[in-house]
From TrEMBL:
Keywords: Kinase, Transferase. The keyword tRNA processing does not apply. It comes from Vibrio ulleungensis. InterPro entries: Cytidylate_Kinase-2, P-loop_NTPase. GO terms for molecular function: kinase activity. PANTHER family: TOXIN (PTHR37816:SF1), YALI0E33011P (PTHR37816). This is Adenylate kinase. Gene3D superfamilies: P-loop containing nucleotide triphosphate hydrolases.
């Protein structure tokens, strides 16, 4: 495992897992959200976003955290391992709700230099709610990643599907 992409539905725990994995492997942790989001919740245009990904993944070893399906041709160009955090729907939604609640209380900046913080209104009463996003994308993410795992064009990638926190913990312990 030299170049790893950790994927999973929003709220699944992929960032937490990615940080632990990067620490264990002693490699940089790259968070796609940090590359994408601009101040005031602005979005980086795709060409600039893709270039940021190319620059960050130009090294020999890394753990990349995030989905952004449109980035697959860029981020999977050299990837050797994809770890899919695929906990149950109920667990993932509950984790997303808990995270949103804590973030709305602490008002901690999510990505350095952006000033972006989650608020109760944005998290729980907005069409842009990360909770709503989790509810809407969970099942399509399962279908997409199952399809990608079976796709011959990705045969060079080792896919690891972790279905529970205990599996994730055991995986990290074995490293």
């Amino acid at each position: 495992m030299l170049k790893v992409n950790v994927v999973g539905t929003s709220g699944s725990g992929k960032s937490t897992f990615s940080r632990k994995l990067a620490t264990k492997l002693q490699v940089p942790h790259i968070e796609l959200d940090a590359l994408f989001w601009l101040p005031n919740w602005g979005e980086t245009p795709d060409e600039q976003f893709f270039e940021k990904i190319r620059q960050e993944t130009a090294t020999e070893r890394w753990v990349l955290d995030g989905n952004y399906n449109r980035t697959v041709p860029v981020k999977w160009r050299d990837v050797d391992t994809v770890i899919w955090i695929n906990y149950s729907y109920t667990r993932t939604v509950l984790q997303a709700v808990k995270r949103a609640f804590i973030r709305s209380l602490t008002r901690k900046e999510l990505w350095a230099g952006t000033g972006n913080k989650e608020s109760f209104r944005k998290s729980f009463m907005s069409k842009d709610s990360v909770i709503l996003w989790t509810l809407k994308t969970y099942h399509s993410n399962v279908e997409r990643y199952e399809s990608m795992m079976a796709d011959p064009q990705y045969a060079h990638i080792q896919f690891i599907r972790l279905r529970s926190p205990s599996q994730s913990k055991a995986f990290l312990a074995k490293l």
